[in-house]
Structure formats: structure tokens, C-alpha cells
Design brief:
The complex is a heterodimer of chains A (162) and B (859). Chain A is of the alpha/beta class and 162 residues long. Chain A is built from seven helices and five strands. The chains are: A alpha/beta (162), B mainly alpha (859).
């Protein structure tokens, strides 16, 4: 019986979904479904529908319209002394973190989540994030997407039958 | 003479007495007159006591029975008693009330008496009557009376001339000044300020030092200090244009009315000194308009428009119409700083000369002025203003040779005055064939502290075709005189140069076609410039500007590169034709989008090169040329990897069309390129670059060092240092290091301003009030991104309230505005809140949150 991975890729471009699509062909024994969301607004309904069995989040979302960025912009504007551009840049440059934060309470506890960020130099940072999202991992140094995909496929529960 | 006058008066009085014999005459008065008669007949008064008694009697009578006769009698008696003061006073009253009774000689005596008292205007009045009386009598008027009147007029006006002069700066002061200027040119302004203050302490009245201090303090946002410095400059040189304009601009943004009034007056004075700086008239109009005086605003706007281009007139037409509607006539006044007046034997002659030259100005007056100046120069060869005024007169007469000689002698007398060098340089600039000489004098003017010289030197280099050197001076002119008369012109030139650079780079194809020139350019590129590490070591403050760029590089180049290339290289190596084909297509899209490759993706190669260019551009804006490709060992491999990928593009395109069409040799070459690129474009390389920026542009937050800084700031402010309690991580900063992502310069400036503000606020509370401070640091993480942060809270017990707006807003006072700006630029946050934990007894806290360098986990 084929196992199924339903990977939701959250990115503002198509680099990752194109790459994962090319890699998926190397795993004929697995049924791999890939879908893409480019904002919180697109991600939440999919999460609420129960479709994804794994997530891959990009970090920087500077190619989507400003109004699609999630996060408390007013609070950031106040934090940065009224500098709106700076506040928007904070949201865009860290949007992956903000989307994760917005979804944290909805995420199933053990669902594998990979953030496209190398925490190897900041292990304490990852530890702090895991206090809210225990199943979060980052990218390790030298790891390619094929390793990421293999890791997804090996995680129990990530490839339950659809 | 006076006896004759007395007798004449007596006879006159007696005659009048006889004429009045028909009228009843008081017995007392008759007795008095008899006494006077007896007295006058005697060769000399026989009894002084008797004379005194008679005079007392006459005085009593004048009070009870005032009459002209008694006045004349009293004056006469005063003369007999040799009491010239009373005689003059009575004659002056008689002249005022019954002038027809006095003869020209009476008036003459009164004039001489007035001169003797120093009452020049009174003497002029009486001399005028002498002339009138003589003319009425048909007698000839002596010519010397007219000359005397003119001389008295000039002397009276000369009293109002202010000549401020301090001794020329000492050698030690000049040395300190030169050191300060050099440090300024290197951008080390706080050190420069110390040298300049030393120069001013050694030679009070050192104008150029005071000006330079003013500009440093103004750039540092220390407005009160800058105002004080410019006032010092003006006290030494009341007509110094740079001081007048800079002070006007600083005072204008002060909140109080008096400051604004003074600012308006100073700006008008600046315009009168530099009528060619038309932009200032427009500025003055706008300020008068906002002050509420539409009439003055309109007057200045009209003056601006008279000298403007058609386009400028059109642009201001609407404003003029609004002002014309609002015309009113408020009074306003302005304070003008007065200058001390030191002694020099040349001063009296100089003051007279200035009146003749500057307030009269006719040919005869100019001659008189030159004579007086010759005398002044003879009396004091070191009195530079005398030579300078002579130069002004020579200039008016068109005697450029003698003007130059006078200026050179003025410079010899006082080489520290930049205006003298400026005038000489301007003169030489007007002479054909002397431009090189003029440039040399401008350079001397610059060394003496002239801001005008910076601009003129820039123009000189520009005219000589030395554009790089011109650029340096245009930048300095703009930086040191951002509101000066040449600011707009400097900005335009620099913008045009930047545009030209772009044009030159676009025309690079033409340069490449010149083989020899291209090779030379290649050699220069290979060996010139500097590395990122060296640049950051010399200017750590740039770390905050380049961090976002490095962040993008790490994300786009190293992270995406690492994710993509390893897998792709393996698939190309081991996959079948279908896999290779799809992999090649993917690589083409991911690597080259934006390089004539249609795709919605962002190509790694063009994006990375753009980001690297941005890094270089950031450096070149600071005048630094980064040679990342050839000289920087961190970035050379990155460039090599990107160009390797570019060179492999053709092979990838072949594989994407038809995998089998690529030869084995080409395939192996492609493999090598991919492997090399994979090794370089990895997150590890990105981390190395990030670590470099952290190493050079971060600071250890040390509690003891902050305490020491507080003491230093208190010492500079001549205050008792406040007590500083260290709390939280700062109390253990030796054991638990805190590294913030702020370079040392910004770090010190932030705390220096906060401490300075606390000390100043404490002083305002009361002379005996010493604030208590507590500083707490806590390590935190951003709750969403997990980024490491440090939160500082500086608590105090100062009663003066503080709000967020006062720190962050447009009205950010004094150093708090600088703090807010620096914190913001370093990706931090500043706010007002409760006092720090552990110091709840205090009134309030200033909260500063800054990004921290991620710490190593405990093993």
C-alpha cells in the first residue's frame, strides 16, 4: 500500500514547490501531494480542513502585497517609533515566523513542521520556539531539499494514508 | 574776554533798567542793581563774601520774580565770580529761550564749553548758531567752523562703532585648532571637539574654533551647546556670516519667542552680508510669514523674486499672492549680540575711519578714512581691522593692487581670521591668470576654518578636471554647512556626479573595447579597494546599515543555494535522461530568473549579484571602495561560484533541450562547477559573514563601563555624578556576557545622551538635587521570531515627566532624539515605562530594547 504525504508549502514564490515537485518523482513508493499557500489567509483554511500532514515554511515573504502579511502592524509601528516602512519590513522578513505564530494553537501537536531557517548557529532560539511549537525543526547545514523530503517521509504520522 | 562780556551785559542791563525806569521797580531789586553797578565799576570784587551774598539774593529773586534782566545779571555775576559752569548753564538757557539776546561770541563760548564737556551734539548746535548769527549780521563766516562741525559729527558717530578684537590666537591654540580640523575631516568629531575646545580655552575669541565647535555640536543634536559656540564666534567677530546664519537657523527651531525674534534679525543680517545668496531671501520670507509678519515676508519675497529665474518666480507666485492679502505691520525686534571693545592705540583712529568709510562713503570721506587708517596702522601694526578696512576702501576705488597689499598685511597681522584669506582668494580669483594662486589661498582659508573655502576648493578642483578631489570637498562643504549658501549647488553637483557614474558604467562596453584600457582597469580593480572586514574595523557604525543586506544575502544566496544545488547536482549525476532534463529546467529557472529568463521565480545568480552590488554601493556612499570580488577572501569564492554557475548555463540549456546532446567532457565540466558552487553557497558561508559583522559591529554591555561613562559625563557637566545601581544581567555582566548588535560608537552615544539628559534634568530640578539612577538589563527573546534581544531599563527619580512622544516624536528634546534615532537604526526600540524591577522606588524608566548576538548554549 502506498503511504501518502500531504505537504503544504507556505512560500511567496514557487522555488520550493517546484523543487519538491521535481524531487517527489524519486519516491515512487510514496504518494506525495504538494500544495502551496502564499499567506496566512490561504494557509488557515487548509489547516482547518485537516488536509496537511506536514508543513514547510519559507521565512521571507517580500513578494506578496503588504495587506496579505499577517502580524500586528500597528504594534510594530509603535515599537519602531512610528517607522511604518521598518515595521512592514519586519513582518515581510520574518513572515514565516508570524504565520507559524498565528497558527500555533491550531497545529496538531506532532505534525512535522520545517522552517526554512538554519538554526545550527542559534540552537537556543530554536529551543525557545519549540516551547510553543514542539515539532518545529529547521534546516541543518548542508541539507538539501531531498533530505528534507526524506525526513518528512520517515516521520511517523507524516505519511498516513489519505 | 569774559570781563568785557560782563561789562557789556551790565551796560545792557543798566540800559534796560533805565528804559524800565518809568515802570515801578521793586525796592529789593533796585538795591540789588545798585550793588551790581558798584561791583562792576570796581577793578575787582572787593569782597567775596559780599559777592556771594549778592549772588544768593539774585538767585532768590529769580525764583520769585523771574525775568530776563535777572537771568543776565546772574550770568554776569557768575562770570565775575569765575563760576563758568553756572554762567554756561544760564547762557545755555538764555540761548534756548531768548537766543536773540546772545551774540555770535556768546554762542562761540557756549560751543567751546560744550566741547569741553564732551557734548558734541550741543557744540554742533552752538557752532551752527554762530554761523547763523554771523550770516545775519552780514559778516564772513570762518571756514574752520564748518570743518569743526563735520569733525564733531564724525566723532559723535564714532562713539557708536563697535570693534571687537581679541588678541590673535597663540601658537598652542592654532596647533590645537589644526588637530581638531584634521580629526573633523576624518569624521572623528567627538575627538575633534576636544581639540577645538582646547583651542578656544587657550585663545578666547578664536572665531574659527568656535565655529567648528558649533557645527559639531549642531550635528550631534546638542543645540544649546551649538548656540553657545556660535554666540562665542559672533562676540569675537560680529560680522561673521557663517556664525550669523548658523545661529539664525538654530534659534529658529527653538520654541521660545525671543529666540525666534533674534533668529529673524540674524537672518536679515546674513542677507545684508551676502546679497548674492538669493536663497536666503526666500528662507527669510517663509520665516517672517510663519512668524505672522506678512509685510516683511512679502518684502523679502519680492526681493528674492527680483533676482530669480522665470521658473522660480512662477513657483512663488501663489505664495506672493497669499502674503499680499495678509499684509500687516507687526513690530518686531531682534537682539544683536554686542561685542567687547578692547583697547588698542589704533582704536580711536580706526573708529573714525570706519565712520568716514562706511557711513559717509563720499570721495573726501574715503580720503579722510585712509589718512586715519594710516595713523592707526602706524600706532598698532598688529591691528588687522585697520588693514582690512583699508582693503575695503581700495576695493571700492578699484585699486586692486593696493587692496591685495592691504589684505596681505591684514593676514600677516592676524593669520587666523578666515575671512581675510577668503577676501584675498576672491580677489585673486578675479585676476586673470591667478586662479592657481587663488586656489592656494582658498586652501589656507580652509585650514583657518573657512567653510566657504570648502566650496571654492571643490569648484577649483572641478574646473581643473580633478573630479574625485572636487567630490571630497563638495561632500565636506555640504556636511559642514548643510544650510549654507552653497548647499543646494553642492547637492546638485553630487547628484549629477552619481548620475554620471551610472552613465559611465552603462557605457562599460565601450571601455572594454579599448583593450589596453580594459587591462589597466582590470589591474586596478584587482588590487584597489578594501575588504568588508577592514571597512567594518575602521567604521563599525556601518554594521547597522549592512546587516539587512547581509541578511538578504544569507537568505537568497546561501540558504537557497544550499537547498538547491546539492540535490540538483546529484540528480544530474545519477538520474536518467528524464530526471536530468527536469532537473536542468528547474536549475535554469532557479538560478537565472531575471537574467533574460522568463519565470515567476527569483534567480539566485542575478539576485545574489544585485545584493553584493548593494553592499558595495553602501560602502561607496561613505567614500569606501569595496573590492569584494578580488580582494575579499570571504566574498571572492562567492563571486567565483556565481560566475561558475553562469558559465554552466549553456550546458544546462542543452540538457534541458536534449540531455544526450551534451558531451561527456562538457558534462564533467558542469559537474565540477556545480560541486564547487555547492561547497561555497551554503549556510555555513553565510554564517561566517554574519559572524564577521557581529564581531566588528557589536558591543559588550558592561555594567562597570557604563558606570564609568556616567561619571565621565557628570564630570564634563561639572556635576556630582548620580549614583547608578546595576541590576539584572548588568550586575553580573562580567560573568554573564551580554553582547548587543550595536557598534561601540552608537552604544556610547546612546548612553552618553541618556546620562547627560538625566544629569541636566536633575540640575533643572534644583541645585542640590542629585538624581538616583538604576540600570537593569534582561535577556529576552522576541515572542514570535525567537530572536535574541536585550532589554535595558534606565530608571530615575527625576520629577520632570517623560513620555514616549518626548523621546520618539518630532519634538524629541535634545539628546533623546538622537537616542531614538540610533536605537531605531540599530533595529531596536525605545519607550518610556515604569522603573526597573528591583528599583521600584524610582519614578520612571526609559526602556531600550536592542538585538543581541546569539549566545552559545551551555555545554
Amino acid at each position: 500500500m502506498k503511504s501518502g504525504l500531504r505537504l503544504l508549502i507556505v512560500e511567496d514564490g514557487r522555488e520550493y514547490i517546484d523543487s519538491f515537485t521535481a524531487l517527489a518523482g524519486q519516491h515512487p513508493s510514496h504518494a506525495i501531494e504538494l500544495r502551496r499557500a502564499s499567506s496566512l489567509a490561504q494557509t488557515r483554511p487548509l489547516l482547518e480542513s485537516g488536509w496537511p500532514s506536514a508543513f514547510f515554511f519559507d521565512i521571507v515573504f517580500d513578494r506578496i502585497p503588504e495587506e496579505e502579511l499577517c502580524g500586528d502592524l500597528d504594534s510594530l509601528i509603535a515599537r519602531f517609533g512610528g517607522d511604518r516602512a521598518r515595521a512592514v519590513r519586519q513582518l515581510a522578513d520574518n513572515q514565516g515566523f508570524y504565520i507559524l505564530d498565528a497558527l500555533a494553537s491550531l497545529l496538531p501537536p506532532k505534525i512535522p513542521i520545517v522552517l526554512a531557517y538554519d538554526f545550527s548557529g542559534e540552537p537556543l532560539r530554536l529551543e525557545a520556539l519549540r516551547s510553543r511549537i514542539p515539532s518545529l525543526t529547521g534546516l541543518s547545514d548542508g541539507a538539501g531539499l531531498s533530505q528534507v523530503l526524506r525526513a518528512f517521509l520517515q516521520v511517523p504520522g507524516a505519511t498516513e494514508g489519505a | 574776554m569774559r570781563r568785557i562780556l560782563a561789562c557789556l551785559l551790565f551796560i545792557q542791563a543798566s540800559f534796560h533798567a533805565d528804559l524800565d525806569a518809568e515802570e515801578p521797580c521793586d525796592a529789593g531789586e533796585r538795591e540789588l542793581l545798585q550793588s551790581v553797578h558798584l561791583l562792576a565799576a570796581a577793578p575787582r570784587p572787593s569782597d567775596e563774601r559780599q559777592l556771594r551774598g549778592i549772588r544768593d539774593g539774585v538767585r532768590r529773586l529769580r525764583l520769585t520774580e523771574p525775568s530776563l534782566l535777572l537771568d543776565v545779571t546772574a550770568a554776569d555775576l557768575a562770570l565775575v565770580a569765575s563760576d563758568e559752569e553756572e554762567a554756561t548753564r544760564i547762557f545755555t538757557e538764555l540761548a534756548r529761550n531768548s537766543g536773540e539776546l546772545l551774540s555770535p561770541w556768546d554762542r562761540f563760548d557756549l560751543a567751546r564749553a560744550a566741547e569741553a564737556r564732551g557734548d558734541r551734539r550741543g557744540a554742533i548746535f552752538q557752532y551752527g548758531h554762530v554761523l547763523t548769527s554771523l550770516q545775519r549780521r552780514g559778516e564772513t563766516t570762518p571756514a574752520w567752523i564748518g570743518d569743526r562741525i563735520r569733525r564733531l559729527d564724525v566723532e559723535d558717530e564714532a562713539r557708536t562703532v563697535l570693534v571687537a578684537r581679541f588678541p590673535a590666537p597663540s601658537a598652542a591654540a592654532r596647533q590645537a585648532f589644526a588637530e581638531g580640523r584634521k580629526l573633523m575631516s576624518l569624521g572623528r568629531e567627538s575627538e575633534a571637539a576636544e581639540c577645538l575646545r582646547r583651542a578656544l580655552r587657550l585663545s578666547p575669541g578664536y572665531v574659527e574654533a568656535a565655529l567648528a565647535i558649533g557645527s559639531i555640536e549642531a550635528r550631534a543634536g546638542k543645540t544649546p551647546e551649538a548656540i553657545a559656540a556660535y554666540r562665542t564666534a559672533l562676540a569675537a567677530d560680529p560680522a561673521r556670516f557663517e556664525a550669523i546664519l548658523s545661529l539664525a537657523n538654530l534659534l529658529w527651531v527653538e520654541p521660545d519667542r525671543q529666540a525666534k525674534e533674534e533668529s529673524l534679525a540674524l537672518l536679515d543680517r546674513a542677507i545684508s552680508l551676502r546679497p548674492e545668496a538669493n536663497r536666503l531671501r526666500k528662507e527669510a520670507s517663509e520665516r517672517w510669514a510663519s512668524w505672522g509678519d506678512a509685510a516683511r515676508a512679502l518684502e523679502r519675497l519680492d526681493a528674492y523674486r527680483r533676482e530669480s529665474s522665470e521658473e522660480e518666480r512662477r513657483a512663488t507666485e501663489a505664495a506672493r499672492q497669499r502674503l499680499a492679502q495678509r499684509v500687516s505691520h507687526p513690530e518686531s525686534g531682534g537682539g544683536v549680540s554686542s561685542a567687547p571693545d578692547l583697547t588698542s592705540p589704533a582704536l580711536p583712529s580706526y573708529k573714525l575711519a570706519e565712520v568716514y568709510a562706511l557711513r559717509r562713503g563720499d570721495a573726501a570721506s574715503l580720503d579722510a578714512a585712509l589718512d586715519l587708517l594710516a595713523e592707526a596702522q602706524r600706532l598698532d601694526r598688529g591691528f588687522a581691522p585697520a588693514f582690512e578696512l583699508e582693503a575695503t576702501i581700495r576695493h571700492r576705488r578699484g585699486e586692486s593692487g593696493r587692496e591685495e597689499e592691504a589684505l596681505r598685511r591684514a593676514i600677516t597681522a592676524d593669520p587666523t581670521r578666515a575671512t581675510l584669506h577668503e577676501r584675498l582668494a576672491a580677489l585673486l580669483s578675479r585676476e586673470p591668470g591667478r586662479k592657481a594662486e587663488a586656489l592656494a589661498v582658498w586652501e589656507r582659508a580652509e585650514r583657518a576654518g573657512s567653510l566657504e573655502a570648502l566650496f571654492q576648493i571643490a569648484r577649483g578642483f572641478e574646473a581643473a578636471g580633478e573630479k574625485s578631489r572636487a567630490e571630497v570637498f563638495y561632500r565636506r562643504s555640504l556636511k559642514e554647512s548643510p544650510d549654507g549658501p552653497h548647499a543646494d549647488e553642492s547637492r546638485l553637483w553630487l547628484a549629477s556626479r552619481a548620475e554620471n557614474r551610472k552613465r559611465i558604467s552603462r557605457a562599460g562596453g565601450i571601455v572594454l573595447a579599448l583593450g589596453a584600457a580594459a587591462f589597466l582597469a582590470l589591474v586596478i580593480r584587482r588590487y584597489s579597494g578594501t575588504t568588508l572586514a577592514r571597512w567594518l574595523e575602521s567604521d563599525p557604525a556601518q554594521g547597522r546599515a549592512i546587516r539587512p543586506i547581509i541578511g538578504r544575502l544569507r537568505h537568497e544566496t546561501f540558504k537557497h543555494g544550499g537547498l538547491l544545488l546539492e540535490d540538483s547536482a546529484q540528480r544530474l549525476r545519477t538520474g536518467d535522461d528524464a530526471v536530468r532534463k527536469s532537473t536542468a529546467s528547474l536549475l535554469l529557472s532557479r538560478l537565472f530568473s531575471g537574467e533574460d529568463f522568463p519565470s515567476a521565480n527569483r534567480g539566485l545568480v542575478p539576485e545574489s549579484l544585485r545584493t553584493l552590488d548593494e553592499l558595495k554601493r553602501c560602502a561607496s556612499e561613505q567614500g569606501v571602495s569595496l573590492n569584494l570580488r578580488h580582494k575579499d577572501t570571504l566574498f571572492s569564492p562567492v563571486y567565483a561560484a556565481l560566475f561558475d554557475l553562469r558559465r554552466g548555463r549553456a550546458s544546462l540549456e542543452k540538457i534541458a533541450r536534449e540531455p544526450a546532446s551534451l558531451s561527456s567532457r562538457a558534462f564533467r565540466s558542469l559537474e565540477r562547477r556545480m560541486r564547487r558552487a555547492t561547497e561555497i553557497l551554503s549556510p555555513a558561508q553565510g554564517q561566517k559573514i554574519g559572524a564577521l559583522v557581529d564581531a566588528t559591529s557589536s558591543t559588550r554591555a558592561d555594567g562597570k563601563a557604563l558606570d564609568s561613562l556616567l561619571r565621565q559625563v557628570a564630570h564634563e557637566a561639572k556635576s556630582v555624578p548620580p549614583k547608578l545601581e546595576l541590576l539584572g544581567a548588568l550586575a553580573e555582566s562580567e560573568r554573564v556576557p551580554i553582547q548587543v548588535r550595536v557598534d561601540h560608537g552608537d552604544w556610547e552615544t546612546i548612553w552618553r545622551n541618556l546620562f547627560s539628559n538625566a544629569i541636566a534634568a536633575g540640575s533643572e530640578t534644583g541645585a542640590s538635587f542629585i538624581p538616583e539612577l538604576a540600570l537593569r538589563a534582561d535577556k529576552e527573546r522576541d515572542p514570535i521570531t525567537g530572536e535574541a534581544l536585550v532589554r535595558f531599563v534606565l530608571g530615575d527619580d527625576i520629577p520632570r515627566p517623560l513620555t514616549t512622544e518626548m523621546i520618539r516624536g518630532r519634538a524629541a528634546e535634545r539628546g533623546l532624539g538622537i537616542v531614538a534615532d540610533l536605537v531605531r537604526r540599530n533595529e531596536g526600540m525605545v519607550d518610556v515605562g515604569p522603573p526597573p524591577i528591583g528599583a521600584e522606588r524610582l519614578r520612571k524608566g526609559i526602556v531600550i530594547q536592542l538585538p543581541a548576538v546569539e549566545e552559545e548554549p551551555c555545554r
